[in-house]
Design goal:
About 50% of the residues lie in helices and about 10% in strands. With about 375 residues, the protein is mostly helical. It folds into 3 domains: about 50 residues; about 80 residues, DNA polymerase, domain 1, CATH 1.10.150; about 220 residues, Orthogonal Bundle (hpI Integrase, Chain A). The strands form 3 sheets. The chain has a 3-stranded antiparallel sheet, with helices on one face. Strands 4-5-8 form a 3-stranded antiparallel sheet. The longest helix has 22 residues. The radius of gyration is 30 Å and the shape is elongated.
């Protein structure tokens, strides 16, 4: 049992509590100015020991900086390099400067909520969620290590991500974009297979099955902090993706005179291909050229008071993944086939991502129900 006594180190002016920790070691807590506060601490300590919720005050003295450094080491071993890079940046830029010197037991829910609100004032929702997620993960570890009883970062509201409308290219727009680019075959391949950039550029000749017109997605060449790192696909699961017959010649050109281990879509200078600078790279250059042509056509139509032709939307290499989904769905592919092609974790994820593309399916359902009802009632 805990004992309450005057502290001889202060000539009896304050009180201290002596008690044994769950491991049997004797410890004390001093500095109580009045006896009832010391007695309350002693009673609470005994109850927490009995309930198994005891936390040593000294354990809560560890700083967020110390725990964060340890968390980063384990996090690096558990996630992909691109994910670790994002987490490390969030820690270094936002979390460590704010909370690094604080003792883990001193953090409060309200001040973390205030920090999140400050970040949200001038940072994107993605940046805020990532920074908050890093802090929350570190504090989750502190809870599991019994340094704190609960995580003050949990149940803090973060800003919602606004869903941006996805750009979808038509067959004609995809063709024009490919012809305007330095790597036309790759652009068409992306627009009709839906592979992520790293998945496509990570393909090797050995991943081809030209008889069945399939590619096996087994590697992912991701650019992390300016360097290409090759690993497994995003979901860690390999998948087989079909490509249409019209790409036969493109595939043949890409694999000509190459061994099994050679990169399929190789850069002109050799090695893994990169999309280039987002403002001045080869892909963005092709987008700008096509859009400039479209805008000239619009100006000409206005001048002649004719219907204005559409302007190709601004797209990134990743947006061609959306185009592939759109073209596949418009060609009659069902949601399960699109899910497998894109490598989504579930059909529900595909539906959530591309719900607007299945509106015609809903119309077909309504029409089918109407037709079935007419048939059924007409037969009565």
């Amino acid at each position: 049992m805990a004992s309450v006594e005057r502290d001889p180190r202060t000539n009896g002016r304050t009180w201290r509590v002596q008690y044994r920790k769950p491991d049997g070691k004797l410890t004390s807590k001093a500095g109580f100015r009045v006896k009832r506060d010391a007695e309350a601490f002693a009673a609470t300590t005994e109850v927490s020991k009995h309930q198994g919720s005891y936390i040593a005050p000294s354990d809560a003295q560890a700083t967020v900086g110390t725990l964060g450094a340890d968390w980063l080491k384990t996090h690096e071993a558990a996630v992909k390099p691109s994910t670790y890079h994002s987490s490390e940046s969030a820690w270094r830029i936002h979390v460590e400067p704010k909370w690094g010197k604080r003792k883990v037991g001193s953090l409060r829910h309200t001040e973390i909520a205030g920090w999140v609100a400050e970040l949200a004032a001038d940072k994107s929702a993605t940046t805020v969620k990532r920074a908050h997620g890093v802090l929350a993960a570190i504090l989750d570890g502190a809870v599991r290590d019994r340094r704190i009883q609960s995580n003050p970062a949990r149940e803090v509201k973060t800003p919602k991500k606004t869903k941006k409308s996805k750009p979808y290219l038509t067959h004609r727009q995809a063709e024009r974009l490919s012809k305007a680019s330095r790597y036309p075959d790759l652009v068409l391949f992306l627009a009709y297979t839906g592979l992520r950039w790293g998945e496509a550029t990570g393909l090797k000749v050995k991943h081809l099955d030209t008889k069945r017109r399939r590619v096996s997605v087994e590697e992912n060449a991701v650019i992390v902090n300016g360097h290409v790192q090759v690993g497994t696909p995003k979901t860690h699961e390999r998948r087989t993706v079909p490509y249409p017959e019209f790409l036969d010649d493109a595939i043949a050109r890409a694999s000509k005179d190459k061994g099994p281990e050679a990169i399929l879509w190789e850069a002109e200078a050799g090695g893994y291909l990169r999309p280039g600078n987002a403002k001045s790279g080869w892909f963005e250059g092709a987008v700008k050229r096509v859009r400039a042509e479209d805008q000239e056509a619009v100006a000409e139509a206005k001048k002649n008071k004719k219907p204005e032709p559409p302007v190709m939307p601004r797209v990134t290499p990743h947006d061609l993944r959306h185009t592939a989904a759109s073209l596949a769905i418009s060609a009659g592919a069902n949601v399960k086939a699109v899910q497998r092609m894109l490598g989504h974790a579930s059909a529900a994820m595909t539906l959530d991502t591309y719900a607007e593309l299945f509106d015609d399916d809903l119309d077909d359902v309504a029409a089918a129900l109407d037709q079935q009802r007419r048939k059924a009632l007409g037969g009565d």
